[in-house]
Each structure stands twice: as C-alpha cells, then as structure tokens.
C-alpha cells in the first residue's frame, strides 16, 4: 500500500512484510500486548476492564513516551487479520467491556477491515495520540463507537520540540472535531459504562501548565456543555533519553497539578482529574506479547 493514513502523508510503500514511513511498520498489524486493562477512565474500564490491544510503531516522535518500547523501538509480533479477530474474541470472552485499539493510527485500514468482516458485540475504542487525518477517520465512521484521543499541545513550537510534529495542533483539533461529529454527545448504558462518545485526554507536562490551560480553553470553547468528557492526566513520569529536553526530566510538582485541576473545575468541564499517585512506572503495562 502507498500510505497516506496519518497527517505525515508520507506516501511510503508499506508491504505485508516490509516496514516503511515514519511509523516504520508493514502493512499488516504488529501487536505487542493484548489484555484486560483497568487503568482507563472509569466509564471505559468499568469493573472488568477494557480489552486493550497495543499496536507497535508510531508516526509521532514524543520524546517522553512511556510506551517507547513499542512506539520507538518497534517491539511486537506481526500477526494476520484472522489472529487479530481471534484476539478480540478472546478479550470479550475474558469479560472486556469494550475493545480498545491503542496507537491505531497507522493501522486504520486494518481496523476498518477487521470490523467490517468481524462485527463485534461490544463497543470499540480508538485510543490515539490525536494525530489523525480527518479523511482516514471518515473511513471508520459507524465502526468506532468511542474515540479516546490525546490533545497534547496547541503550540506548534512545543509540539515540534517534543513530538517532532509542528502541525500537531492543527491536525489534532481537526481530528477531534471529526470524532465528536461522528459520535455525538456521550451516551452510557444502565451501568454507567460509556457506549458512545469522545473522551479527550491531556497529559500535563512539567512546566507546561499554561499549555494545559490553553487545551482546556479550546475544549470548553469548542464543544457545548456535556458533549465530550475531558481527562486531565498527571501520570507523567520521566522516561527515555531526555538529555535534549532536560526540563522534562522530573515529575510534576503538586502545585502544577493543583493549578490545572482548579482551572478545569472553574471551566466546568465534565470529566476526570487523575491523582498524582498515578505517576509511577508500574502503571505502564509490560510489553511482552501477552495475549498475542
């Protein structure tokens, strides 16, 4: 395939066995982990967990990525589509409330085919970094019930420095607006589990409280009340080689989280504030081919 799935629009030739482009992945899926996950937002994890499938490779270059073993070093196992369908069924049999495709952007074509050929009896979750193309997302309409994108930054200089993508703010805003168009306001089942809607995540970075406030201003000013959920995350943990960005080589200070959480409450955003105790390495799942 000539790939134009993500905003890089790199037109790389991805074959069934040969990786290419900035995501470095072949056309077929490469998966690093598939298991029940209890650490998503409450209406997604519920009481039994979200059935998470972690794809390898990534078209972003976030210097702080906690999943860098799969996003930067490309750990994972190539599998055929039928095995991916079996993994989905196995997670449902284990009790998964939903199927959660993590880092799926460069495998949009695979997920679209999977869900067309193998309709699933539980909601499906598109859990991405927010760096998605609107045209690609439109190909998923009707197949994805819950969108769970990051909105990392609105400053092009910051996104260029930390994610090697100066166009991230523009691309992510357009993508999230398309996601909300597709899902409409959040809807829940009788147990309070999300069955349809968009949850926008923002990870507070050290020294970037003003950036977090700008993201929240955008969400509050763009979407009518009670349309989306907003998840303010404080789990940032220094990770990988940060010698070029030493300002990120620390955990959040209590005052940074408090200031951001207060701002969220004052805006009246519906959603969640993650506790600072989540900033622990053990909250990053082991990428060891579990369930693959």
TrEMBL record:
Entry binding sites for [4Fe-4S] cluster: 58, 62, 65
Cofactor binding annotation: Binds 1 [4Fe-4S] cluster. The cluster is coordinated with 3 cysteines and an exchangeable S-adenosyl-L-methionine.
Molecular functions (GO terms): catalytic activity; iron-sulfur cluster binding; metal ion binding
Domain of life per record: Bacteria
Record key words, sorted: Iron, Iron-sulfur, Metal-binding, S-adenosyl-L-methionine
Gene3D superfamilies in the record: Aldolase class I
Record-annotated membrane-spanning stretches: none
Entry cofactors: [4Fe-4S] cluster
InterPro entries found in the cross-reference section: Aldolase_TIM, MJ0674-like, Pyrv-formate_lyase-activ_prd, rSAM, rSAM_sf
PANTHER family: FORMATE LYASE ACTIVATING ENZYME, PUTATIVE (AFU_ORTHOLOGUE AFUA_2G15630)-RELATED
Protein name listed in UniProt: 4Fe-4S cluster-binding domain-containing protein
Organism: Flintibacter faecis
Lineage: Bacteria, Bacillati, Bacillota, Clostridia, Eubacteriales
């Amino acid at each position: 395939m000539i790939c134009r799935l993500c905003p890089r629009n790199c037109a790389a030739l991805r074959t069934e066995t040969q990786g290419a482009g900035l995501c470095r992945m072949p056309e077929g899926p490469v998966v690093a982990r598939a298991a029940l996950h209890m650490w998503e937002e409450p209406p997604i994890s519920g009481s039994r967990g979200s059935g998470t499938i972690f794809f390898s490779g990534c078209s972003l270059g976030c210097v702080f990525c906690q999943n860098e073993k799969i996003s930067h070093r490309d750990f994972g196992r190539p599998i055929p589509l039928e095995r991916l369908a079996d993994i989905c069924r196995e997670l449902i049999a284990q009790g998964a409330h939903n199927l959660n495709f993590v880092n799926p952007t460069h495998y949009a074509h695979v997920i679209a085919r999977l869900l067309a050929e193998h309709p699933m009896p539980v909601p499906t979750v598109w859990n991405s970094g927010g760096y998605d193309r609107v045209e690609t997302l439109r190909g998923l309409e009707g197949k994805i019930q819950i969108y769970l994108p990051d909105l990392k930054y609105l400053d092009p200089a910051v996104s260029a420095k930390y994610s090697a993508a100066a166009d991230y703010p523009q691309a992510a805003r357009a993508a999230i607006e398309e996601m909300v168009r597709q899902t409409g306001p959040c809807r829940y089942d009788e147990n309070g589990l999300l069955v349809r809607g968009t949850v926008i995540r923002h990870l507070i970075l050290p020294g970037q409280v003003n950036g977090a406030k700008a993201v929240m201003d955008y969400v509050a000013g763009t979407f009518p009340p009670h349309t989306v959920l907003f998840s303010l995350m404080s789990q940032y943990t220094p990770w990988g080689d940060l010698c070029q960005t030493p300002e990120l080589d620390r955990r959040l200070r209590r005052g940074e989280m408090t200031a951001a959480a207060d701002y969220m409450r004052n805006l009246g955003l519906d959603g969640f504030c993650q506790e600072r105790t989540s900033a622990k390495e053990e909250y990053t799942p082991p990428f060891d081919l579990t369930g693959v």
